[in-house]
Specification:
Layout: E1 3-15, E2 21-33, E3 37-41, H1 48-54, E4 63-72, E5 75-76, H2 82-88, E6 93-96, H3 100-103, H4 110-114, H5 116-120, H6 126-139, H7 158-170, E7 176-180, H8 188-205, E8 208-212, H9 216-222, E9 225-230, E10 233-239, H10 240-245, H11 250-258, H12 269-273, E11 280-292, E12 298-310, E13 315-319, H13 326-334, E14 341-346, E15 349-350, H14 360-365, E16 366-369, H15 373-376, H16 383-395, H17 399-412, H18 429-442, E17 447-451, H19 459-476, E18 479-484, H20 487-493, E19 496-501, E20 504-510, H21 521-528, H22 537-540, E21 581-583, E22 589-591, H23 596-602
Parallel strand pairs: 3-8, 3-9, 6-7, 7-8, 13-18, 13-19, 16-17, 17-18
Antiparallel strand pairs: 1-2, 1-4, 4-5, 9-10, 11-12, 11-14, 14-15, 19-20, 20-22, 21-22
Length: about 625
């Protein structure tokens, strides 16, 4: 069938502060046969998205396409005039962005936006366009496909909105679709649903696609062929299996190693054998947002009756899907959100429920590192100013003493001293996250609350941040609450784990978490949703079936929060009473009606998960 896309000696340049052109894509060449999916992989700044955008004849502000050739279906894209490019974009070449929330207009219904491009260009009537959109909703496994288009963007989940953006791209039957990190911001269970929908619709329609990602496990489910990029240059090109399992280039080999995280620091056997009093202890925590009633209970409860402990020098992982209450837990611990009920203790002493009652020393000893360094750091402030502020506030350092400490902090996070004069807006994503961490370290805390600190980073930079956290833990004996939806990362760095679902603690694991089953059914689902770096895994992972739902027979009783989704629920038990807390043989504590023996039987390889008595 031949190649649909041919890129030859592509060059893109950007202007520097002096106005001189700096090459950011350097003589890149590749081709894509019709019906295949090509992945562009590499760390941040490697040129992945920049190259993908040139397939639409587009360069970001401040950049320009300086040379080379981009041919799609025989036509030279770089020779097209403005009208021809307008006809190309959205019709022949479609784009699915990373953030669906930013791509939709919140004031219009979803179906109005999905059909908009074909109506503007007169490609079909409204009735035909809406029927085609509904067919795409169905193909993308969206619930209630006939009605869901009538909702507004805020009325659907992130995963559903991401699939609707794919429908918007596919409605014109484009020759080429560009998927630009479309699942990066999704939790693992939602990511699998979206990936499965994307792969099916691409395969069924014979679509040619470019998939931009730094997640090699995701790439291995989608791609036929891979281009490895670094600093705007091609380091290796090959079939997916060869790149993943027999890479030839040293940089590709480093990427593969970073994608298979090893355990980064071992448990302290002394701490396990003779534990000190908890550094942070939370008892019976209930918290939420919105207007509070006469008893002080907010209208939107996010966390319910949470208990946990973090000991000095240890790392507690908090894992769960989006909306499970992970970030709310960090905000309560930091004093940013007063709890509705329960107690937060630090070194055995109760902490004031909000910021007002906490001392400066308590603020110093508990620091929080937010997920998005772009919004956490003032883009117009220099690194020196960002790091200098906590040094002045907590330690009274000024002048030469402050500057010396700033240099020490930069050395601690492995950044050059001359970066101190640069603004936050001038730093890469990995550099910003290191500064975000250094600002917390400047206070010399005992506990750092890390809220999804690596989720937006590429594999290599994320691995470097995790290694740095491990080194700081060993050198400074600092403790972490590490919040994430990434099971692999939590498994590699955490001593203990709390699993949250719908605001409840459904499992707690101590001492080398996620090492051996049995687990709570939700934890098992999380673990089984982590993509493996091999082809065919995505198809194999869809075997678990959930039994028909039976309405609760006692509506006045609190029931299991995981009831509706549980693949091993027991009708007549789980829909009647709240589950007890059960201690399994491996020491894990779960909130479940099943015993250790039940779960071992239900999740054994020889047992069908749909056998629910």
């Amino acid at each position: 069938m031949g190649d649909l896309v041919q890129v030859s000696n592509l060059r893109v340049v950007a202007g520097n502060d002096a106005g001189k052109p700096v090459p950011i894509v350097k003589d890149v060449s590749f081709s894509i046969p019709r019906g295949e999916v090509l992945a562009l992989i590499g760390e941040s700044g490697s040129g992945k998205t920049t190259i993908a955008l040139t397939l639409m004849g587009y360069a970001r502000p401040g950049c320009r396409i300086a040379g080379g050739s981009v041919r799609i279906d025989g036509a030279e894209v770089l020779d097209l005039n403005r009208d021809e490019l307008t006809a190309l974009r959205g019709c022949k070449v479609a784009y699915v962005a990373q953030s669906a929330a930013a791509a939709f207009n919140p004031s219009k219904t979803i179906i109005d936006q999905v059909v908009e491009v074909v109506l503007i260009r007169g490609l079909m009537t409204r009735a035909v366009a809406e029927a085609k959109a509904i067919d795409l909703f169905r193909a993308l496994a969206l619930p209630d496909p006939e009605q869901i288009g009538g909702r507004y963007p805020h009325q659907v989940s992130g995963g559903q909105l991401q699939r609707m953006m794919a429908a918007m791209a596919l409605i014109t039957d484009p020759a080429l679709v560009i998927f630009d990190e479309p699942t990066t911001a999704l939790d693992v269970t939602t990511q699998i649903e979206v990936l499965r929908a994307f792969k099916k619709v691409v395969k069924d329609r014979g679509t040619t696609a470019v998939y931009v990602s730094h997640d090699l496990s995701v790439v291995s489910q989608m791609a036929t062929r891979i281009v490895v990029l670094r600093h705007g240059e091609v380091r290796e090109v090959g079939l997916m299996e060869q790149i993943l399992h027999a890479p030839e280039d040293a940089y590709t080999q480093a990427l593969m190693a970073a994608a298979r995280p090893a355990r980064r620091h071992a448990l302290s056997t002394v701490a396990v054998a003779n534990p000190a009093p908890p550094l942070l202890e939370i008892r019976g925590l209930t918290a939420g947002y919105g207007r509070r009633d006469s008893r002080g209970v907010p209208c939107n409860i996010v966390l319910k009756n949470i208990d946990l402990q973090i000991r000095q020098g240890r790392t507690l992982g908090v894992i769960g899907e989006s909306g499970s209450g992970k970030s709310t837990l960090a905000r309560v611990s930091a004093g940013l959100l007063p709890p509705a009920d329960g107690t937060v203790l630090f070194n055995g002493e109760p902490l004031a429920p909000g910021l007002t009652g906490r001392t400066r020393d308590q603020f110093r000893r508990i620091q929080i590192v937010f997920q998005n360094a772009d919004t956490a750091l003032n883009p117009s402030h220099s690194v020196a100013r960002i790091l200098g502020r906590p040094l002045e506030f907590y330690h009274g350092l000024r002048g030469a003493a402050r500057d010396r400490r700033i240099k020490q902090l930069l050395d601690l996070i492995r950044l050059p001293v001359n970066i101190a004069t640069r603004r936050a807006s001038e730093l890469s994503g990995g550099q910003k996250q290191r500064i975000n961490l250094a600002r917390a370290l400047a206070a010399e805390p005992d506990l750092i609350l890390c809220d999804e600190v690596t989720s937006a980073l590429d594999t290599v930079v994320g691995a470097a941040i995790l290694d740095l956290m491990g080194e700081l833990r060993r050198e400074l004996n600092v403790s972490y609450m590490f919040i994430s939806h990434d099971i692999s990362t939590v498994r590699s760095i955490c001593d203990d784990v709390v699993v949250l679902y719908a605001g409840q603690k459904v499992e707690s694991e101590n001492h080398r978490p996620f090492q051996a089953p049995p687990y709570h059914p939700y934890t098992d689902q999380l673990i089984s949703s982590v993509p493996e770096m091999r082809s065919g895994w995505l198809e194999e992972s869809g075997a678990v079936q959930t039994p028909p739902y039976v309405d609760p027979v006692n509506c006045g009783t609190d029931l299991c929060c995981f009831l509706v989704r549980c693949p091993v629920r027991i009708n007549g038990v789980c829909n009647v009473a709240m589950p007890p807390r059960v201690t399994l043989g491996n020491g894990n504590e779960i909130l479940c009606h099943h015993s250790d023996a039940d779960l071992r039987r239900l999740y054994s390889p020889s047992h069908m998960r749909t056998d629910l008595r």
